[in-house]
Amino acid sequence: MEARQELSVGVIGCGYWGPNLIRNFSSTRGWRVKYICDLDPKRLAVMQEQYPWVIPVTNAQVLFDDKDLDAIAIATPVSSHANLAIAALESGKHVLVEKPLASSVEEAAHIVEVAEKVGRVLLVDHTFIYTPAVQKIKQLVESGELGDLLYFDSVRINLGLFQHDINVIWDLAPHDFSIMDYLFPDKPVAASASGMCHFGSQEDVAYVTAFFERNIIAHFHVNWLSPVKIRLILIGGSRKMVVYDDMENSEKVKVYDRGVEVIDSIGGIYSLLVQYRMGDMYSPKLDTKEALRTEVEHFRDCILTNKRPITDGQMGLRVVRLLEAAQRSLQSAGQRVAVLHPEK
Predict the structure, then answer these.
(1) Which of 82, 85, 175, 300 would disulfide-bridge 107, Cβ 3.0–4.6 Å?
(2) Could you give the domains of the chain?
(3) pTM of the predicted model, to two decimals?
């Protein structure tokens, strides 16, 4: 039986993503939004009109000092994640942090270390992990239906939203980095990246390649300058392949019984024959539940049962490690950069 029926949360940041967190915490049973926090009083006023019971504050220290507050959700610029998350954890709060976890591996590792030290739940808001589509693909991978995983290929492009503090890799790639991390047991050991800045001071078009110890490869195309919005992931397996199109309304995931088989009919390199397998395609039925609602329910469950979140600090740290390797490669004309594995 649950020790407490209701948990209180304060949300820091009422800009782009904060209102989504406030809405889901407010509509999810077992949560009560106590505070909303933002430096802009106008944003607070707009949110309080929708949620009149919340306490609006411009100073996050009010949340840290409230000993009755159970959790804090952080939806602020990446550069502020580390200071806010560490202060929240050290004040005894459970913490949900918007992706990416931090702006450097050093900061991310420090947040994870503090969370472990104080014994509080740290959940990184890699929202796509909680979508019915990604959960279904995870089942396909774990069941062995896809066979050995061969590649991960993603395209995440649209027109905007331009960020002033981070480039397109740090903005869009964490979604696909986290999906790959969740689905692929193997972790990348190196990365290379190339990109270009056309407007402002941040790269707005970029391509990242991740390399593995085995014959697996991953490629990510991210772009703020596309005339169309595309959210597409292809996963190749030795038995079957998956296409995940998040822009589809009814058939987001399609499983193809297609592939190739290489047969040595006589012997020697010149006798290798490639046969194509062109089987059926099916689209599994998916739930329609909002991923962020599933996430805040999971956050509550982890707090009450002392369970490690699916998107825990270690996943957040691995994503930042890959981001930092891609950034270093970007600054080194695309040279391959090692991805250091998290400490065990």
Answers:
(1) 82
(2) 7-126+291-310 (3.40.50.720), 129-288+322-338 (3.30.360.10)
(3) 0.93
